[in-house]
Write a structure and sequence with these properties.
434 Repressor (Amino-terminal Domain); about 210 residues; mainly alpha
Length: about 210
């Protein structure tokens, strides 16, 4: 079996979705009929697993002919596959730690959102390298600002008006005067309260990590 390039796998996955829906099947229903996990169906439809896509197309062939699909037997795992999965998991963990969506990472790295999603599932080396480089560049300004502030510019403004991030809602209780001060600083910088708090917390964390180094 020849390995298809990423774009071809994505196109094949989209065609498969159309075919599945034309048969009135949900991913969950197909997973039961084909004796695979819903995640396997999802991976096939997003161009992650060419082997699974071919297997599921065969399952649809059988369903169209009124037969029960044959049970799926997974092929031997290629050498190095475990390492790639671990790299992919570390990439996803890093992105989530930075509070970034896949779409935002795609913008930073000049890739498509689907390419970022595939990298987090498969650990594709070329894509991984581009994403990690983009995340390195993303983290560098925050680390530099923390270092500069602690060394020579104690009164340097922390908030950057143009630096907006995707944030996740977190319940946080604070003294009224602190919230009022954050709101005032956010308004001056043209940011929302959440965006301002994110920048303040990142600045404080980087400063802490810098000063904690031996």
């Amino acid at each position: 079996m020849s390995v298809l390039p990423t774009n071809a796998r994505l196109e094949a996955g989209r065609a498969f979705v159309v075919r599945r829906k034309s048969l009135g099947l949900t991913r969950a229903h197909l997973a039961v009929l084909a004796d695979v996990s819903i995640t396997s169906v999802d991976n096939a439809e997003h161009g992650v697993s060419q082997i699974m896509l071919e297997r599921l197309n065969a399952a649809l062939d059988a369903i169209e002919l009124g037969r029960q699909p044959e049970p799926f037997v997974a092929p031997p795992e290629p050498f190095g596959e475990t390492d790639r999965r671990e790299d992919a998991a570390r990439l996803k963990e890093r992105r989530e730690r930075l509070g970034l969506t896949k779409r935002r990472v795609a913008e930073l790295s000049g890739l498509s959102t689907s390419s970022v999603a595939v990298a987090e599932l498969t650990g594709a080396s070329v894509t991984m390298a581009k994403i990690n480089e983009a995340l390195d560049n993303y983290e560098a300004p925050a680390e530099a600002s923390a270092s500069d502030a602690s060394a020579s510019e104690p009164n340097r403004p922390v908030l950057t008006p143009s630096h907006r991030e995707t944030v996740k809602n977190v319940l946080y209780r604070a003294p009224v005067d602190l919230i009022q001060s954050i709101d005032a600083a956010a308004e001056q910088a043209g940011l929302s309260r959440n965006e301002a708090m994110t920048q303040f917390l990142r600045f404080a964390l980087n400063l802490h990590l810098t000063e904690s180094k031996p």
